[in-house]
Write a structure and sequence with these properties.
It is a single chain. By secondary structure, this protein is an all-alpha fold. Helix 7 (168-196) runs antiparallel to helix 13 (307-340). The chain is globular. The chain has helices at 15-26, 29-41, 46-74, 78-86, 88-128, 147-164, 168-196, 198-207, 220-239, 242-245, 251-284, 297-304, 307-340, 347-363, 365-369, 374-382, 385-399, 426-444, 455-471. Helix content is 73%, strand content 0%. It is built from 19 helices and no strands.
Length: 473
């Protein structure tokens, strides 16, 4: 039932819900580190990073509108809309690629989430009795994890499985609550840093906002690179955005909600950069050596050395990590698995599958998977996402003219509109494969690796152009 068009009464998301959705996508340790690192890489050049981020987010906004509209109109998730362009069977198998990527990332992010829990447990135990964690039982390791780590990892898996498998109403509450609590936490962290030395911290922060080099031609290359990096960060989310836009009231709310991505980026960037710069002043009393500025929030709180602040910030990071795992990995995986085995799986059984696979990936991440370059494999699978977007958008707007057949979404009859050639749309599959080859070449061809940030766009362009020419020849 999760695959069918949702009840009109459930189409009640407005722009504020989408503001929280986009907030969840950027509110992560990776997002914080990425934004902070970009400012350091370009020597705190606010023009390059801020405007580059703005350009990247505008592209995300435009593409999210394109891919989100059909799901909003028909109330259907990404893998079902995919059937209209790839065919009933084609969508089943190519949609599974999104599930595989989601499963890997869910397991990996659950491992890092469990590390946060283990930090909280260790700090709590240490504050009670600093000799307990020196006991022999805590010095026994299996697969790189000791007793505390194993307990934290099992807890992280069970907690997410319990929370995420309830209903989309509950997931919506998680998304909204997490966004507000994390921004509140960042505001609190900001105030701690700011009030430490208002004059010095303010001066250090104001110094980086120099607009003297706005029109410097040397900014053009870095500007494009930053835009590509920001777009690449959100690219995994775009292709299955329909999993969330299906709940939005109308197209107007969809566009306003997607526009809030830019607002989120500004708010988050301000907090991330201020906290990173202010913390450096707080810790080192200078900004002379920018290479030593910490951009990972867990590293920052580790250096501060205040147990109360550390626990508080870790709890906020836990909220951010859980909700990010929900929107970026769990829900896309759930819908793709349901589409692959619609008669065998439901919300509860899918939660079990995701939890078991995520558990296996998570426990083997440190001793095995991180050593064999598994992320290159995940990246390669992700090279399908741009081409999938390209085929879907061209098919919906230029071939189908935004008109889809409700009665054929779930039809296995040979005369069904989306049955094509025994359930596969050969022209779409060919276009998709060609786009994938070009996108994946930026991963595996050393001469093209500089274009890796644009692999999504390259794949989308090649597949969309090929598909349009094949269908209209």
């Amino acid at each position: 039932w999760e695959l069918v068009s949702i009840n009109p009464n459930d189409k009640n998301w407005d722009w504020k819900d989408l503001f929280c959705f986009w907030g969840n996508n950027i509110q992560s340790v990776i997002g914080f580190s990425l934004i902070g690192s970009l400012y350091l890489v370009y020597e705190l050049n606010v023009v390059v990073v801020l405007f580059g981020s703005l350009i990247g987010s505008v592209f995300v906004y435009l593409f999210a509108n394109l891919v989100g509209k059909p799901s909003q109109k028909y109330g259907l998730p990404f893998p079902v809309i995919l059937r209209t362009s790839l065919g009933i069977k084609g969508a089943k198998y190519f949609g599974l690629i999104r599930a595989l990527v989601g499963l890997f990332m869910f397991g990996i992010q659950t491992y890092f989430l469990s590390k946060l829990f283990s930090y909280i447990i260790r700090i709590s135990i240490f504050s009670i009795d600093n000799t307990i964690i020196d006991q022999d039982i805590f010095l026994i390791f299996l697969l790189g994890l000791n007793l505390i780590d194993w307990g934290a990892f099992v807890f992280a898996i069970l907690l997410q499985s319990f929370l995420f498998s309830k209903s989309h109403h509950f997931n919506r509450s998680i998304i909204k609550f997490s966004t507000m609590i994390v921004y509140s936490g960042m505001l609190l962290f900001f105030l701690v840093v700011f009030l430490y030395d208002v004059k010095t911290v303010s001066s250090a922060f104001a110094d980086i906002f120099s607009l003297s080099n706005v029109f410097d031609k040397n900014n053009i290359g870095p500007l494009i690179t930053v835009a590509g990096t920001i777009f690449a960060y959100f690219s995994f989310t775009i292709v299955n955005y329909g999993d969330f836009s299906r709940y939005v009231k109308n197209e107007s709310e969809l566009k306003k909600g997607n526009l809030s991505l830019i607002l989120n980026l500004f708010i988050f960037s301000f907090f991330a950069v201020f906290i990173a710069i202010g913390s450096d002043v707080f810790l080192n009393k200078n900004l002379e050596n920018m290479e030593r500025i910490l951009t990972n929030p867990t590293d920052i709180i580790g250096k501060i050395g205040n147990i109360q602040i550390t626990l508080m910030v870790l709890i906020f990071i836990v909220f951010a990590s859980v909700s990010t795992n929900l929107v970026a990995n769990y829900i896309p995986t759930q819908n793709s698995l349901l589409n692959f085995l619609p008669t065998k799986l439901n919300i509860k059984s899918t939660a079990i599958v995701i939890s078991i696979v995520g558990f296996v990936i998570g426990i083997f991440w440190l001793p095995l998977l991180s050593q064999i370059g598994i992320l290159a494999f995940v990246d390669t699978l992700g090279a399908f996402f741009g081409p999938l977007f390209g085929v879907m958008v061209i098919d919906y707007y230029f071939i189908k003219k935004t008109n889809l057949s409700n009665k054929d979404f779930f039809s296995l009859e040979s005369n069904g509109a989306y049955f094509y050639s025994n359930g596969w749309h050969i022209k779409a599959i060919y276009s998709l494969s060609l786009g994938f080859i070009f996108a994946a070449s930026t991963i595996w061809n050393e001469s093209l690796m500089n274009f890796h940030s644009y692999s999504w766009l390259i794949g989308a362009f090649i597949s969309s152009l090929t598909y349009y020419l094949l269908v209209n020849r």
